[in-house]
Every structure is written in C-alpha cells, then in structure tokens.
User: Fold this.
Amino acid sequence: MNERSFIMKTNQKVHIAEVALQLFASTGYGNTSIAMIAKKAGVAQGLMYNFYSSKENLLLEILNKGLGEIQSSMASYTSEKDPGKAIAKHVETTFDLVEHNKEYWKLFHSIRMQNTVKSFMDKIYEPNLLLVLSTLTINFKKLKYKNPALEAKLYFATIDGLVNHFLLDESLFSLKKIKKHLIQKYTI
Assistant:
C-alpha cells in the first residue's frame, strides 16, 4: 500500500469514527445503525466493515480513545511531587479535555446509562475507574486527609457530576468558574 492510499484509509477510518461518535451521542447507541453511520459518513456500508467488524467494535475504539484521555489527565499524579499542584493540573487537564471534545463526553456520560451497552461499558470502564480512584486515594493520603479513599470518591464524583451538568447546560455550569473554585478548595 502506498503512502497516499494509507493516508486516505486512515482518514476514512477516522471520519467514520467521528460520524459514529456524533450519531451515538445525539441519537443513542441503540438507535444508531451501521447503515445510518455509513450514509452520514458518505461511505458504502460494506467499506465500514473493512475498518470495524461490528458496531460494538466501532464503539469500543471510540471509548478507548477517550479512556486514554482520562489516563493522560491523571499523569500529573506521577509527574508532580506536590499533591496540591497535581490536583490543580488534573482539574485543568480534565476540564480542557471536556471543553474540547464535548461530543465524546456526551456519548460517554449517556452511554453509561443505556441498558443495551451497560455491561459492555462496565467491562472497559471499571478497571479505569479503579485505577483513577486508587491514584486519587494515594494523592489524598499525601495531603493527609483523614479518610483519603472517601475523599477520592467525593472528588471524583464532584468532577464527574460537574462534567455531566456542564454537558447538559453550559450556561449554568461554567467550567472556568467551577475549575478555579475546585482547585482552590483542594490546594489551599
């Protein structure tokens, strides 16, 4: 395969995933068919199967990309010695990711509640959640919280809830204002 055809195939695959993300987020995973994705992407349905063996595999690739972003947002906890600065960087990174990729996070938050994919979603999400919670617990131990595991869950639930509400109504839940307050709460 020459470089041009490789780039074209890569671009088609990325384009299909972007269209699927938009449809899954707006229409729901269960209500979106491969035919709908192909039509909106402007490709033949058969071509989609060259890239993704099933709708579930397409969703898995989309979710894995986002889970990778979650893991990268946690990097401050290993790179930053000061636990307060680690929290500040984590909040900044997380909120920036959400603001720049709203469609993905709308899908992520909505799909966690859809019965058709809940068990599938839990399999890939739970190990990531446990890693996040254990990393946060270690950080809150460094900050000498009385109950670091409980504080980690509260902190995580706060960010998760804020993101969810931001996606529902940006005007009511401005991440810029909330970000500053959250950083002050945990770093002072």
DSSP finds ten helices and no strands in the chain.
